[in-house]
Amino acid sequence: MVLSMLFFGGEVLHNFALALTIGILFGIYSSVLVASPIVMWLGISREDLIKVEKKDETAGALP
């Protein structure tokens, strides 16, 4: 969508779409190439992000 605004949007939308495109590219770079090694360095795994199910012990005691 942003690239179509950049190429076909005309003179008015060109600078706005260019700024959005640059922001999206830097956001992708930051998320993939910067944050991923930091998360690995901290030792966080997928198992750490999964919620632990709590067993309700009172559910079986009710008549």
Strand-helix topology:
Layout: H1 2-8, H2 11-42, H3 46-49
Helix pairs in contact: 1-2
Folded structure, characterized:
This protein is mainly alpha-helical and 63 residues long. The protein has one domain. It contains three helices and no strands. The protein is elongated. InterPro entries: SecD_SecF_C. Residues 1-43 form the Protein export membrane protein SecD/SecF C-terminal domain.
Throw out a few tags for this protein.
single chain; 63 residues; mainly alpha; 3 helices; elongated
Number of helices: 3
* Tally of strands: 0
Provide the β-strand percentage band. under 5%
How is the main sheet built? none
Gyration radius (Cα, Å) is 23 Å
- The low-pLDDT segments are none
Percent helix, as a range, is 55-70%
The dominant shape is elongated
Distance between the termini: 59 Å
Q: Number of domains in the coordinates?
A: 1
Content-based structural category: mainly alpha
N-to-C order of helices and strands: HHH
In round numbers, the mean pLDDT is 85
Organism: mine drainage metagenome
InterPro entries: SecD_SecF_C
Pfam family, one: SecD_SecF_C
Domain Protein export membrane protein SecD/SecF C-terminal: 1-43
Q: Could you provide a short overview of the structure?
A:
With 63 residues, the protein is mostly helical.
